[in-house]
Amino acid sequence: MNLPIQCPKCRAWLLQDIFNQPELKPCPACGVPLRVEVFPAMFRKAAAVQMSETILVEGESSCFYHPGKKAVVPCDNCGKFLCALCDCDLRGQHFCPNCLETGKTRGKIKTLDNERTLYDSIALALAVYPLLIFYFTLVTAPMALFVAIRYWKAPKSILRRTKVRFVIAMILATLQIAGWATFFIILATK
Amino acid sequence: MDSKYVKLTSARARSSFAVAAMSRCSLWLGEDHLLSVDSSGYTETYKRFYFQDIQAIQFYETRRGINWNIILGTIVTVIFVLVMIAKPAGSPSNWQGGEIAWMVILVILLAIFGLFLVINLIHGPTCKTYLRTAVQTEELAALSRVRRANKALAKIRPLIVAAQGGELPPDVAAAWMQNLAASGAKAAPDVPPRLS
């Protein structure tokens, strides 16, 4: 059950005409200026939990995971029949617990994708920052090139789309490696 | 889906001293949700708040901006006084090398801190913003200024109202909240004190 909105500063319940006002109003308890926008979801009753039903009529489709329970929906990914207990409803899509888990770990279900590693930024950092102390580039330039090639096709940020960081990192790393190669060749020939 | 995010706020540090840690937050508008992005520079963590699920958005004015104004104002005043005291007599063409170096350092410091002060004044009062759903109350660190929070709310509000099929007039919201408090107090006796 929902509890009323509290003042974020003093934690007193806000019950007066402070909601959905166009400007900041003082909290009746502590006086701090605040604005509270409340939406109908605040007062919506939570949907009743669906219980899985036992199969009573022979021939009725049963849940893949609970053979004694009546199937209510197939999994949208693998098609297995699921009872109400096994049905994981994800914004209108139905998944079995296995598909939900694999979908999350493999990043197949976009709405569950909640973390990304920015390999393009890592490659660029490896190519740029060590330039401050140039000797480090002997190690970091091949690393930057490796990261850029290895993770070229890895999922990027869901906000960014270009591979420009990878390209810059590869160019810089290649130049650094070429510079070191030239240096060692000159050193060897002397 | 990936390409359909529209930037709502630019990235902001999670706290005033988070520059070194590079933890930055930003808000993006999706088709049916608000996306909060926490970025460390090398990883991004996403939180999705579906318009249908948002129960409330609230923010309150904090004293952080005023405190920074006081600190920066004091520093600028002190440096200005030092410039006035250290300023050698005569025209700048007659100043010695050391005197010129001191004046250049002090003026650069004055300009840097003065710029921070002006930026802080331009951005206006600071605030803390919270978004509430049925299962969590999340601080939106990207909305740390009152003006920006108001602007963002003006953009988000119609989308939430459309997703939830209508808006609540202030008097209805207050009446329903009082009902909620009455039933909540019966169900949970250890709740915070109520204001009449």
Topology of this protein?
The complex is a heterodimer of chains A (190) and B (196).
Chain A: E1 25-26, E2 33-38, E3 73-74, E4 81-82, E5 88-90, E6 93-95, H1 97-105, E7 115-117, H2 119-128, H3 137-150, H4 164-189
Chain B: E1 6-13, E2 24-29, E3 33-39, E4 43-50, E5 56-61, H1 64-86, H2 97-123, E6 127-132, E7 137-139, H3 146-164, H4 170-187
Antiparallel strand pairs in B: 1-2, 2-3, 3-4, 5-6, 6-7
Helix pairs in contact in B: 1-2
Describe this structure in words.
The complex is a heterodimer of chains A (190) and B (196). Chain A has 190 residues and is an alpha+beta fold. In chain A, 31% of the residues lie in helices and 11% in strands. Chain A is built from four helices and seven strands, in the order ββββββαβααα. Chain A has helices at residues 97-105, 119-128, 137-150, 164-189, and strands at residues 25-26, 33-38, 73-74, 81-82, 88-90, 93-95, 115-117. In chain A, the strands form three sheets. Chain A has a two-stranded antiparallel ribbon. A two-stranded antiparallel sheet of chain A has the order 3-4. In chain A, helix 2 (119-128) runs parallel beside helix 4 (164-189) and helix 3 packs antiparallel against helix 4 (164-189). Chain B has helices at 64-86, 97-123, 146-164, 170-187, and strands at 6-13, 24-29, 33-39, 43-50, 56-61, 127-132, 137-139. The model of chain B has no long low-confidence stretch (mean pLDDT 86). By secondary structure, chain B is an alpha+beta fold. Chain B is elongated and about 80 Å long. Classes of the chains: A alpha+beta (190), B alpha+beta (196). At the A-B interface, strand 2, strand 7 and helix 2 of A face strand 3, strand 4, strand 5, strand 6 and helix 3 of B.
